[in-house]
From TrEMBL:
<dbReference type="GO" id="GO:0005777">
    <property type="term" value="C:peroxisome"/>
</dbReference>
<feature type="domain" description="AMP-binding enzyme C-terminal">
    <location>
        <begin position="452"/>
        <end position="530"/>
    </location>
</feature>
<dbReference type="InterPro" id="IPR020845">
    <property type="entry name" value="AMP-binding_CS"/>
</dbReference>
<dbReference type="InterPro" id="IPR025110">
    <property type="entry name" value="AMP-bd_C"/>
</dbReference>
<dbReference type="GO" id="GO:0016405">
    <property type="term" value="F:CoA-ligase activity"/>
</dbReference>
<dbReference type="InterPro" id="IPR042099">
    <property type="entry name" value="ANL_N_sf"/>
</dbReference>
<protein>
    <recommendedName>
        <fullName>Luciferin 4-monooxygenase</fullName>
    </recommendedName>
</protein>
<dbReference type="Pfam" id="PF13193">
    <property type="entry name" value="AMP-binding_C"/>
</dbReference>
<dbReference type="InterPro" id="IPR045851">
    <property type="entry name" value="AMP-bd_C_sf"/>
</dbReference>
<keyword id="KW-0436">Ligase</keyword>
<comment type="similarity">
    <text>Belongs to the ATP-dependent AMP-binding enzyme family.</text>
</comment>
<feature type="domain" description="AMP-dependent synthetase/ligase">
    <location>
        <begin position="37"/>
        <end position="403"/>
    </location>
</feature>
<dbReference type="InterPro" id="IPR000873">
    <property type="entry name" value="AMP-dep_synth/lig_dom"/>
</dbReference>
<keyword id="KW-0576">Peroxisome</keyword>
<dbReference type="Pfam" id="PF00501">
    <property type="entry name" value="AMP-binding"/>
</dbReference>
Amino acid sequence: MLPEEMDNSMASKNIITASPSSIPKLKGIGITFYEKMLEHKSKIAHTDAETGRTETYESILQKTIRTSLAMSSRGIKPNDVITICSNTTIESFVCLYASFFTGAISANIDPRLPLSDMVYLMKLAKPKMIFTIPETIRLIEQVIEQSELNIQIVVFGQTSKYLKYSDFLLPSPDENKFVPYEPNNIKDTAVIVFSSGSTGLAKGICLSHNALLGLSYRIAFAPLMSAPTLLTFANLYWISAVTLTPNAIINGVNRITCSVFDPIKIWDLIKKYKIGGLFLNAFHALEMCKYGRPKEADTSTLYSVIFGGCTTTKEQNLHIRKCLPEAIILNGYGQTETAGCVLMFDPTNQEHLELLERYPNSVGKPFPGYYYKVVNPDTEEILGPNQEGELRVKSDFLMNGFYNMDDSNEWDTDGFFKTGDIGYYNEDHCFFIVDRIKQLLKYQMWHISPVKLETVLLAHPAVHNCVVIGIPHQLDGDHAMGVVVLKDSAVGKVTEEDLQRYVDDQVGDYQKLRAGVKFVRELPVTATNKISRLQTKRIVLQERV
């Protein structure tokens, strides 16, 4: 049964939804962006926070058209995959827009990822063109060599060996008659966003034109989520950067681009650029407010601050609000698979604002067009208010599936997406997230695969068995810890610090065992003789009290 076919009778089954709202007939992202850039042509579209350089929507449109024509002239066709591997710049966003204009599908990566992760992602996506920064060229060369792919390299900056992005911006005789690509179906995939899975293998999550545009039109307060001037730090590897893009362009927002988050300088940026909307991951929000509000801070223009990505406590949320008293502070909930945020309070609704005050650790209320249930993951029983279980979501605005991978286990028999997060809702239909079922850990905003770290540990000749768990950290989210059973022959010959260094020397910085290694005689197992991560974590945490 499709979401639009679900009626009020579902409420008796403890399936929660919001009042329906009407939206205009959606077009493809490319033609939508083209029309909105023309509509907002005199407005500032982007400002580079580091240089102060600005670009109007008219200028951005011209650069996007020229980039699109250059991509097409070099063989990029609709449904071809391209990749942007860059920090947050105006040019990187223009390339994203150009992918929509040409019908190409962007699958973007963070230049800070380890080589092994990049190789895996490129083998999965098989892009035909990659846009990158000079600092990452050598790494990209290694990625292409190891992945054995033929990928055209385009460099943002000077290069004598590869295509220069500046050449993509040269005038073309065809630009005045350019027409953006229009998909046959708005549910066709428009972009691939990578996300790690609980098995340790990254997945390419396919998001449609419908999913990316739907939130901007369906949510009545969407224009206020970004306000006239929006500051974010995420590059295009992250779902937040991708899903905020349609909202910004549809509403003619000036998007401030900044590559590096600095918890001190951000206060100056808010003041200098009169920021109205601030979107942060939870780690950045906590870092920004770590030492309180600076005396010279001016946040009078700040209307809304939205943060998310991991669970925060009631005390942390209240502290952030204290530091930013002029703004409405919203801690929403969403995932890459849900195409971004699916729970949040409406800052234009007085009732919602009252509930936000009453429940400061709630992630909000349902959106129109989405259906929610909380389920006992063992029995599939649908639970009622104040009962903890797995949160599941159903909507036409969720992912299409995984790119070249099976996604059948991600949905239940009623077509609800299994979020893997434990939560509950109360009598006011305010939702709360309390834990994760999935094995995946999250350090700051980086996903960490325990399976990958366990594989490294198990390769050490002294290790008999192991499990990697996350130790909660007030600011960072999870600190990975290796819980290890040594081989009898290795007892007394290798230390916990030896194994920690062994792992840390082989993984990326965010994957390091920041909580160290702990030796145990045995690991707890489930009834089916599988190692119990949950019970291991409980035992370790009890010992640390």
